[in-house]
Structures are given as C-alpha cells and as structure tokens.
Amino acid sequence: MDNIDTFIEKFITAVDFQEAVEITPDTVLKDLPEWDSLAALGVIVLSDMEYGKTITGEHLKQVTTVNDLYQLLT
Amino acid sequence: MSVAQDPFSLSGKRVLVTGASSGIGRQIAITCSQVGAELVISGRNPERLQETKAALQGEDHLAITADLSQQEGIDQLVAVADTLHGVVHAAGISKLVPFRLINKQHLTDIFDSNTFAPMLLTRDLLVKKRIAQNGSILFISALASHSGAVATGAYAASKSALLGAMRSLAIETAKQGIRANCIAPGYVRTPMLDGLAQGGANMDELIARTPLGIGEPEDIAHAAVFYLSDASRCLSRHYTFIDGGLSIPLDIYA
Amino acid sequence: MSAQAFSLQDKTILVNGMASGLGQVIAQACSQRGAKVLPAAQPRQPIHGLVHCVDHALECAVADLSEAELTRLFHSNVVQPVMLTQQLLQTDSLAPNASIVFLLSTAAHMGAKGQGAYAASKAALLGMIKCLALEQAAQGIRVNGVSPRADEAIWPDVANSVIFLLADASRWITGTSLLINGAGSDSASRSQMETGAAA
Ligand SMILES: NC(=O)c1ccc[n+]([C@@H]2O[C@H](COP(=O)([O-])OP(=O)(O)OC[C@H]3O[C@@H](n4cnc5c(N)ncnc54)[C@H](OP(=O)(O)O)[C@@H]3O)[C@@H](O)[C@H]2O)c1
To answer: Does domain C3-194 have CATH number 3.40.50.300?
Structure first.
C-alpha cells in the first residue's frame, strides 16, 4: 500500500498543476487554486486505476484535506 | 401478392443486435421486433439480456450471453447466428479519463469492446457467409469521435476508428449488396450516461446544450430501423450524427 | 407502436416543386403513407412537413459561367425555397415539431468538373439548413436535407429518405443531410466509391 508521500506524488500527477504548489497531508482541496472539475475527474480516475476504488464526485465533496482523500482511497 | 412490402418494415428479416442487455441496444432490439424482425440478441449480463428477450414482440427470438472482447464470445455468437439480414453493433463501453492518465490497460479495455469486437465479429460473420445478400451492417459510434470532448481521448479514438473501418468495409461488400453505415449519437438517456455522471462529468450542463434536448433510446432505435430496412437500400458508407442538433455549432469539420 | 413512427397519417405535407419528376414521386409516396399533400400553402392549414424539391441543373465550367446564369440558378435553387420557408414561418403556418427537408445533391458534398455553380447553390442550402435548424429548435422544428446523385432510378429511394425525415421516427435528427449514393448497387456508384480509396 502506498504511503502518504507516494500518494501525494500520484495526486500531483493526476491533478496536473501548472503552477508548482506545496502539498501536505493537511492541504485543503478546495483551497488549491487549480482545483476544478477536470482536477476532480483526475482524482476519480486515479482512485479507480491505481487503488481499484470507485468514487464519485459526491464522495469528493465530503472530503476536506489531502489526508482525508488518502484515507478514503487506501 | 397484393400489397407491396412496406419498405420500412423488417418482417422476414433476421437481425443480430449486440449490447441488447442495456440502453440503446436493448431498445433497438425491441423496436426491430415491433416492426417484424426476428432477433438474435447478445449481451454480457444474462438476467438483463433475458429481460430484453421477454420485452420483444413475437416468438422465435434467440438470446446469447457472450463477452465480445474475447474471441470465444465472438465464436459462440457466430456459431448460432444463422443467416442474418441485419447486424447492429450497439455493445460498447465508455469511461472518462484525462489524457495524462491514459495507460495501456485503459486503451486495451476500450478498444477491445468498442472497436475490435465489432470489427472481428463482422469479419467472422462475413467469412462464415452469415450475412445475406442485401444485408445491412450498422455500427453505433458516438459524436465524441468528432467532438473529442474533455477526457474522452481513448473513447473518441475507439469510435472514430469505426469510421475508417466502416467506409472500407462498405466498398468491399458493395458487390454482394451488403451495406455498412454508422450512426453517431449525441447524449441519450441510458445507464451509460448515468455512469458518466457518476464518473465525474457534469452531464446536466452538457445535455442543456443539445438544441432538441436529451435523446431517448427510441430515437436511435428508429434510425436503426431505417438503416436496416429496404427504405435505405441506396444508402451506404454513411456516418450520421443523431444528436438533436448538438453537433451543428461545433467546429468538428473546420 | 413503432410502425406508427414511420407513418405520415394525419400530417399535412407541402411539396414545393411538386410539378418536377422527383417532386411528383415524393408527393405520391407521402400520400401513400397517409399524408395530405399540398402543392401550396392554404389559409388555416397547419403544415407538418415542408419538402423543397426545386432543383435546377446547370453544367458549365466556372471559366465560362455568366453572371446572369449564376444569379438565375441561385434564385431558383436557393432564394425561392428559402423565402418560401421564411414566409411560412412569418405566417405561423408551420406546426410545432414540423419537419423541413431541402433537396440537395451529392454535388453539395463532392466536387466535380462543370458543377461549380450548381454545387455552390446546393452547398448554400447546407449552410442554411444548419443555421435554420438552430434557430427553430426551440419550436421543435427540424431542418434536414437529402443529397441524391443524379439518377432517376433512385427517385423512389429518395422519397423513402424524405419520408423518414418527415416522420416522427426522426424527431431527434436535425441539421444534417442524407447522402443517397446508390450504395454501390451498380458499377457506376461502385467505381465512384472506390476512387481514391487507398490514399
Ligand atoms: N448513451 C449515450 O449517450 C451514447 C452516446 C453516444 C454513443 N453511445 C454508444 O451507444 C452504444 C450503447 O450505449 P448505451 O448508452 O446503451 O450503453 P449501456 O446502457 O452501458 O449498454 C452497453 C451495452 O454494451 C454491452 N457490452 C459492453 N461491452 C461488451 C462486451 N465486451 N461484450 C459484450 N457486450 C458488451 C453491455 O452489456 P452488459 O450490460 O450485459 O455488460 C450493454 O448491453 C455504445 O456503443 C455507446 O458507446 C451512447
């Protein structure tokens, strides 16, 4: 199972940040300047392809931080 | 012989419909049976396939459970197909994946079901001479083949591949009078569309852009009947958008 | 019932250019499928289908084309059907969910020597079809075309495509045109299909 650092690396690839951002487990998703529908879709696909978990946009809305997401997927 | 046969009727014709366990394929099968066709229907899920069979009008229909991404599945279907006057390839899968997350597995999954299955099934039916003279082969593509919406890279590619395949096939089968066409739907109310919404797409916003509103499976089924019937016997190599006008203002031919 | 979707029962169809050979075949086919066919609009008679069959041919290399000929051709093939459509819209003569079908030609889609003026007049209708389809979609009015090759033998098949576009079976189809190329049923249409196939 991926540790949180590996997860954050994959998260950064999935979201495709144009401007480098520092992501920590406490980063709040909604505060990310590039958090939009395509970014959310990237996370949904990451969840499915890398962690074999099907999540929906509704699940994502209930998630606050990067660590919450990590807990949800792993 | 008193009344000439209605050119829009399918009576006396045997039609194979794949993807008949759900959505568009299911409705195509039902509508074809209502205009007189004898059906061979196929899908993966046996329960839902039987439900479709029960909804067909008339007797003598055949239901075959098969996964067409596997050669064994294709073999099973071809073995029982007998003589067909029409084939509708409605089986297909879709999944939204941003281009940067596409991997080989995703491409293989999408192309196996959407592109290779209909091409290989058609090949085997032709080689085994299962398709009658003046038969009609219909592929179900998607507007995405030309519009290439966000995160449809693999799906759009798998569907535009059908365009070239169909055009080449239509020339090769013309001397037997066998026609090949493709209809490319816009947004149609089916479980697939629900799946896209689940997968993170904002479908309401997309559907709102369709000038005539969201399509129903019946709308695609009626077009399928036209392409299978003798009313369209002079039409081949078509790639027709059936989309409630969604493609009209797009730049897809520019 | 699905057979109903391909019927023209209870529909009034106006055939513009009914005197022409193809116009007659289309009018007859529509009435056989249950439509009431009119050659011209009548007061208080809502129209469910409008088929434009006017089709004037002109074979002339662009280098030899006169302005008068070009103008005359555009007037008969474009201005007449478009202005008639406009008049019916302005007088609310078209029923909600009416279907309008323009007669195009393969020439609208494919180039051929000597067809410049004719092809341009038919391609002009393609542009008109798309924009009118968008403008009228809110009323449920659909606008499409049929593009047959020049061959009297396929007129009954052209009529069947027109019937499909007029009937409720095509209620979600708008802004498009159906190419009626003969499907390679004879050597002429087959060789046309094969040209350039491997390029
Ligand atoms: N709905 C739309 O808005 C839309 C728009 C454009 C194009 N299309 C196309 O229309 C077709 C039908 O779509 P739909 O909306 O009706 O989707 P759907 O409700 O998800 O149905 C898809 C059907 O394809 C079958 N299928 C998929 N993969 C298969 C395989 N490998 N082997 C055998 N059967 C397989 C499914 O079988 P099981 O369910 O039994 O597994 C099901 O019967 C698809 O090709 C789709 O791409 C749909």
So the answer is: no
